[in-house]
Fold these 2 entries.
Entry 1:
Amino acid sequence: MAPTSAPGCWSGASEAQSTPSEDPPPSSVLTSTPAPVKLPGVRRIVAPIALVGLLLLIWTPGAHAFIYWADTQNQTIGRAENDGSGVNDSFIHTGQLPYGVAVDASHIYWANQNSNSIGRANINGTGADNSFITGITSPSGVAVNGSSVYWSTLGGKIGHADLNGSNKNLNFITGPVESCGLALDSGHVYWVDIDTGSAYIGRAGLDGFNVQLSYVTIPGTSFPCGVAVNTANIFWADTGFFGGGTRIGRANTNTGGGADPSVIGDAATPCGVALDTSSHLYWANAGTNTIARANTDTTGVNESFVPTGGNGICGVAVDNLSSPPPSPTPASPTIRFGTLKRNQRQGVVTLPVTPSGPGTLTLTGKGIIKRQTQNSGGTSKLIVKAKGRLLRRLRRKGTARVTVKVTFTPLSGAPVSQSRKIVLREKQPS
């Protein structure tokens, strides 16, 4: 059955070499511009997107590298070898309107529009689980690295979970308006955003901090869905207002500048982009149901590199034959205390606490009320209030000393604790 909304774009990103490939262009290069394809039922550009993050497949003797895509109307994940052979559009049957794919060394991931979830299967296609991560409203893309799963949503929010699906955070990054796909590099998460007719590439740290909502401003009128990144460039796909888009855009990774919305101009409703470590750029053509490929310097364009045999393909991911740089070791979580603020009328102290990232803050101590709060970034104010014997002492003498402990449990990684001695004071009645 046809999906209720038309294919949008999805993208995948792997950490690729920045030096242009010197391989000769493929022999079957198409130079004609296909007729625009109107995608049925799509509202503006808000067709869903799915992206690939750092692709971590490790080469072993006899191993193969593959290209993956999402087939929205047949509701499958397709696969072919990275030379374009061995096409199998029904590699995984999802039945849940999949949008986009991501892969790591062990698993394949996809975003489910029907079930509002992230699906996952073993790398060989077995063990498909459409409910790997649930409760996501309109997921539009997925990306993975060595420790985490990230996803975008049509409502704009970027979500995050540990790689095993635990510690889900639906509000990991807020601020984007319509986040149409995302990608990762060794230090940042990137997403495509559309806001009242303007289009941007947003960026934040992998911990969700240092959000830059308009890191790249895409020139002119553009309806992009899908983003991929390497050390030199950010690439995006422009699906078009009602499909029919033909452009792949590019900007500088390190500065966000030099945005060119049309470094490749003969795509056929491109829905997602991906990079490999061999200086190749890939995109999914929803208009012709083909996977296209070019060198990362945009030469050697082949719009029919993989004829998928699918229907409404959107999203592309690529294995890596060689290992990309390992994911950086995350910095140890930290806690920073601010200046105390005393309320002597109530006999309490406000302790400002700034953790190094999103997570849970827990305040404990002998004789005080336990506090726990979720911190999504910034400073939390924890109230230190006596109870029991300590409270009676405070009211009797007007002062009481206590050692409090604050424990910060980050979204991923081990918790860290820090203690501080505090003097509580309560104004005595006259």
Entry 2:
Amino acid sequence: MDDRADLAAGADQGDALVDALAQTTFAVTARLNRLGAEHDLSLTQLRVLAILRDRDRVRITALAQHLGLEKSTMTGLVDRGVRRGLLERTASAGDRRAVDVLLTRAGRDLAERLHEAAATSMTGMAQGLSAPERQRLTALLTRLLPPEPRSTARCDRPWAPSLSKGGAGDGAA
């Protein structure tokens, strides 16, 4: 094979990879959107519940930053969650000017049910793979994720990216 053929083969593999990643993203997003719709939640609201499920509380600014949202947008999402009885706002223990967000009992119950449903749905996507193939896929997908800052703990939920675990967060996501 000459250099041009090698380049063309590499481009074809790159195109196939991009297509496979995009199609997988679409399939996962569709499943999560359906799950959210069953509970009248947007994908972003689903992510908020998932993030809060693994933490006692998160500072609203850290949550906004982590999700790539403006603070005003995050405030609106939290307002909707508060009205539905899923979220609660409280003054931050470390900084009375800051606001922390946490799940209510109803919010935690819903987040638990959503986690179980998401796990079933995501696992179902890989049911055609053998156990070693699933392990390899997990390892490869994990390698594609950006490295975690040392101050964060990896979230063990496939549908909730990590944030500082335990406290309200320090604004770093």
